[in-house]
Amino acid sequence: MSKTTLYDVHADGKAHVIIAGRFEGGTPPLYPIANPPGWTVARTSSGIYTITFADQYAAFISCVVSLEATVESTADGWTVMTSTYTDGANPTLVVTTNPETGTTVGDLPAATFINFIAVFRNTTVAQ
Q: Using CB atoms within 10 A as the burial measure, which of 23, 46, 49, 66 is most buried?
């Protein structure tokens, strides 16, 4: 028997949408799978990547980003963070990468990947 009490959800469809993805930083960013569902990414400038989501959502809740590398030492000292979220017909999220040696953004070394999990509220119906 479950220890969790389940409640009815009063929403139009699923309350939340999770969009997850992975891409290799570079010019242009490379996808490990062709045509990832629900998003695309473009390198805006050195170390700045703009993820564009295919659908419009009621609200942006959160995003978690991380670095992954085929050789551990290539990701050493790098940080990755989310920056600006812009909603609208084509919502975008900016992700930046910073090397340990400086405070300015920079492009990731080869074979270093950005992973992300973005969570959106899918409805404006009161719950």
A: 49
The partner residues of 118 in beta bridges, in order of sequence, read 19, 63
Q: Are 80 and 65 in contact (CB under 8 A)?
A: yes
Tell me the per-residue pLDDT of 66-124, one tens digit each, with 9 for 90 and over: 999 988 888 888 889 998 899 988 899 999 998 877 668 888 888 899 999 999 988 76
50 is written with which tokens? Answer: 């703009």
* Rounded-to-integer distance, Cα 118 and Cα 93, Å: 9
Residue 55: beta bridge partners?
none
The model's pTM:
0.82
pLDDT, residue 2, reads 42
Torsion on CA atoms 58, 43, 37, 22, rounded to nearest 10: -100
Question: What is the rounded distance in angstroms from the CA atom of residue 107 to the CA atom of residue 88?
Answer: 28
For residue 58 the two structure tokens come to 């009621």
Minimal CA–CA distance to 125: which of 7, 8, 13?
13
The pLDDT of residue 10 is 56
